[in-house]
Specification:
- The structure is a single chain.
- The protein has 287 residues and is mainly beta.
- The protein folds into two domains: 153 residues, no CATH class; 118 residues, no CATH class.
- 2% of the residues lie in helices and 48% in strands.
- The chain is built from one helix and 22 strands.
- The strands form four sheets. It has a nine-stranded antiparallel β-sheet with strand order 14-13-20-19-18-21-17-16-22, with no helix packed on it.
- Strand 4 and strand 5 form a beta hairpin.
- The radius of gyration is 19 Å and the shape is globular.
- The two termini are 34 Å apart.
């Protein structure tokens, strides 16, 4: 595995962020390769673990990476795009954050928050599956502590070593998603939007946030709430029926499968419909 280090310096004397779980991003043009993100303190600081929150917002040609400091009411982020090369390598672009108005309105921030930019946005050529790019995002010169974003390239399916299949490895896809509540269409994504992962999530104003999985996990608060078949996933919560539709098959296989749902009644200022996914359901649990 190669590791490429990119220094993106921002001097900060205020409390920094903390480690957070892995998130991943895929795109139909990336030939089955996914980008996996993990931000963490170096050296580790478990006390500051509650200061960080992060997310990935799916875009038409890649994604938007955001990290929030809820204690200081500031956030920063960047866009990430990847281009496959004929040689089997990829070109990775880190670009200024460029959200649509709808995406910006869906963030859990308001006018009292400060948006921070990065001093430079590198282009990384000739990276391969198995490589990791490290980006030093924030550095405290007084202590030497920094927050680092690790971006790794991995195949969606590892074909190198045979292994037994497990339910936890089932991948859900939600492309050009739309939602109906009690039979009434309420929201849909812009054309071209989509996400892939073992667990899906969405936020809908007035309804809160839902995490959806095919795996029973009562210890994390998941309960059996509905079913998925082909391009349609339905579930009920509190007497309300939700219907999720996709332009392609959501779950693999030809059957009808149970879905397990975890609900959070959190709200977002100026909220709108946003959605995403993660490799494991626990990466989406923040409470």
């Amino acid at each position: 595995m190669r590791v490429t280090s990119l220094i993106v310096l921002w001097i900060a004397a205020a409390p920094l962020f903390a480690q957070e779980g892995h998130l991943s991003l895929g795109h139909e043009d990336w030939e089955g390769v996914r980008l996996h993100f993990s931000a963490m303190f170096e050296p580790p600081d478990p006390v500051a673990g509650k200061e960080i929150d992060s997310m990935l917002v799916v875009g038409e040609s890649g994604g938007h990476r955001l990290i929030f400091d809820r204690n200081q009411k500031r956030y920063f982020g960047y866009d990430v795009r990847m281009e496959p090369r004929a040689s089997g390598t990829f070109l990775l672009r880190i670009e200024p954050l460029n959200l649509t108005k709808k995406q910006s309105d869906g963030l859990a921030v308001d006018a009292s928050w400060t948006k921070l930019g990065l001093p430079r946005y590198p282009v990384v050529p000739d990276i391969r599956v198995g490589d990791t790019v490290t980006i030093d995002l924030l550095v405290n010169p007084a202590t030497g502590q920094k927050i680092v974003d690790y971006i790794s390239l991995k195949r969606s399916i590892d074909r190198s070593v045979p292994q037994d299949f497990s339910l936890a490895e089932v991948v859900l896809e939600w492309n050009n998603p739309s939602i109906s509540v009690n039979g009434k269409p309420v929201e849909s994504s812009p054309p071209g939007g989509g996400t892939t992962g073992s667990a899906l999530w969405f936020y809908l104003p007035g309804h809160g946030e839902y995490v959806i999985s095919l795996v029973p996990n009562p210890k994390l608060g998941f309960r059996k709430a509905g079913q998925v078949s082909d391009r349609i996933l339905t579930f009920s919560d509190g007497g309300v029926m939700y219907r999720l539709e996709s332009s392609s098959r959501i779950a693999p296989g030809l059957g009808v499968y149970n879905v397990y749902v975890r609900h959070s009644a959190s709200s977002r200022p100026n909220g709108t419909f946003i959605f995403g996914s993660a490799d494991r359901p626990e990466y989406l649990i923040h409470e």
